Request: fold
Amino acid sequence: MTAGIQMFVAEIIKVKINKSMNKHNSITWISFVGIIGVFFGIFYALFGLESLPVYKKFVPNAVYTAWSNGLYGSTFIGFSVLLFFVGRHAFQTNNKTLMKALLYGIMSWLVVEAFFSFYFGIYINVLVDVALTLFLGLPLVLGIRSKNK
Reply:
């Protein structure tokens, strides 16, 4: 493809993306993705991935636990990267709305995890969740309550 045609195609794609992903559509999209993620998380927490037929068919039992650990670890890495960038931005700009969003996300994770840990008798993890609540939540609460603009 010549450079002129490539630029023309790139411009068409940019125009279509700009028109289709306006602010309203972007908010709708991210809200939809977030809600689906919450429902999938509830399903995963209650029934596990092994309850999905596609995983039973394509994931060998011999590697299921190791693979599942990889999923959990990668999720934690992704969450921590998000926490790093959004959290830094929230404190650098003293953005209380972002701090609240981080606090709600962290607390929803830790409350659900503590519930399942308690339910299954893994009390040491309940203590870990309490410690994480203080370690991650307290700076956010203090930031939210600070009078700095």
Q: What stands out?
A: The chain has a mean pLDDT of 88. The radius of gyration is 21 Å. The first helix runs from residue 3 to 20. Helices lie at 3-20, 23-47, 53-58, 61-92, 96-119, 123-145.
